[in-house]
Structure formats: C-alpha cells, structure tokens
Specification:
Blueprint (H helix, E strand, L loop, with lengths): L41 H5 L15 H20 L5 H5 L8 E3 L4 E2 L4 H8 L6 E14 L2 E13 L5 E15 L2 E10 L2 E2 L4 E2 L20 E2 L6 E2 L1
Parallel strand pairs: 1-6
Antiparallel strand pairs: 1-2, 3-4, 4-5, 5-6, 7-8, 9-10
Length: 228
Amino acid sequence: MSGAIASKKGKSEWHYLVILYHCVVPECAADEPGKKGDLTTLDNLHSTLGFPTSPYHNPDLKKEEEEIFDHYVRWQEFNDNRFATNPEEGAGFYDLPNTLYYDLMGFIPRGKFQKHFYHIGPYFAKSTIGYKDMEIIATAPDWGYCNMEQHYFGTSTDGHEFDFKFRYTGFLRKINGTWKWIQEHVSFPANIATQKADFTCNQDAGEHLKMKDEDNEKRDAGTGTFSK
C-alpha cells in the first residue's frame, strides 16, 4: 500500500451495509444515502478517499490493515443488526478494561469504559452506521489506527430520532490474535464564535475560526481565498 492509490471519483463516498431509504435530516440527500458505497476490499475503500492516501502505509503490514478493515466491517454489520439485542457481542470488539474513550458527550477514562459501554450502547443501539473518508494504517504487526467521518442515525430507546455526523479516530491493538479497540475519539466541528457544534460535520474550518461570528469570511470554492 502506498500513497499512489488515488480516488476513483475525485470525491468522498459514504459506505453503508444496507441501502438507506430514510434519513432524519435533509442534508443526507446530498450524500446519496441510497447507495451502499464499497466495503468489499481495503483497496476499494481507500480509493474512495476525497484526498490522497497517506504516504506512510507500510506494504509489509498490508495484511494487518486488511484485518483492521475487517474489524470495522464486522462492527458495522453487528451495529446495524444485533446491537439492540446482543450488546455483549459488541463488547468483544474492545479491550474493555483498558479502553480510553473521548465520547461526543464527554471523556471516559480508562477503567470506566465498560460501564459506559453498557449504559450508552443500548440507548443508541437501534441505529445504522456509515463510513466516509476512512483510512486504515497499521504501524506494527499488533498496532494500527483508523481515521474517518461517521454517519450515525436511528431511534433511541425513548423514541427520539437522532442523526449525527462526526469525526472519528480509533486505535487498535492485536491481543492474543484478535484486534480490539483500546482508544477512540469522536467529535463534532464547532463554530468558535458561537460555541455551537455542527452535527452535520459539513462546515468549513476556515469559515468558522474567528472569535466574533460577524468577522468570519466565506471561502471561494474556485480559488480557495476568503472574503466577506
């Protein structure tokens, strides 16, 4: 694997395991939610990045990257189909006692994640996950990480529809032959001036950096320059 793998379409692509007919927010339509994307192979996944792949992929660790890729595909299949009825299966994807988690709602320190998993997991368990701009890099035969944007939507146990898109980074360790998460970080981009998060993950970082919102500028799509 090297940075030579280029995007097939020159733009990002969402990946789902099921064909989606419904999203809670209108922004979904722009992301073509009715299409599955391509989670058949790691190379196909990386070819749908909206930017160049990292030059730091090690060809000798391609097998490990494919194993990590399989970990995420299996998690997606589990989440979409069995999380609501069998959360214990999901716990096996983690090294629960040693997982550090930066959740959307707050920080979960090592040693407390197991309780958090069984508290928050069932609440959002009736859900579907999508992956975009997902890149997997193995750094050693037993270490690797993944960056992406995730789409997470469904219905909570108390009947509320939810629909989030957020940034994601996950770190994995191969323990006794099995890849497990040991740290995850999820977050929304925010407008610095208003201190409000963007639950659609669509905002331009350069357009939301000023301390006063009225001082923020718009980026020209063609030139990339900023102006009022």
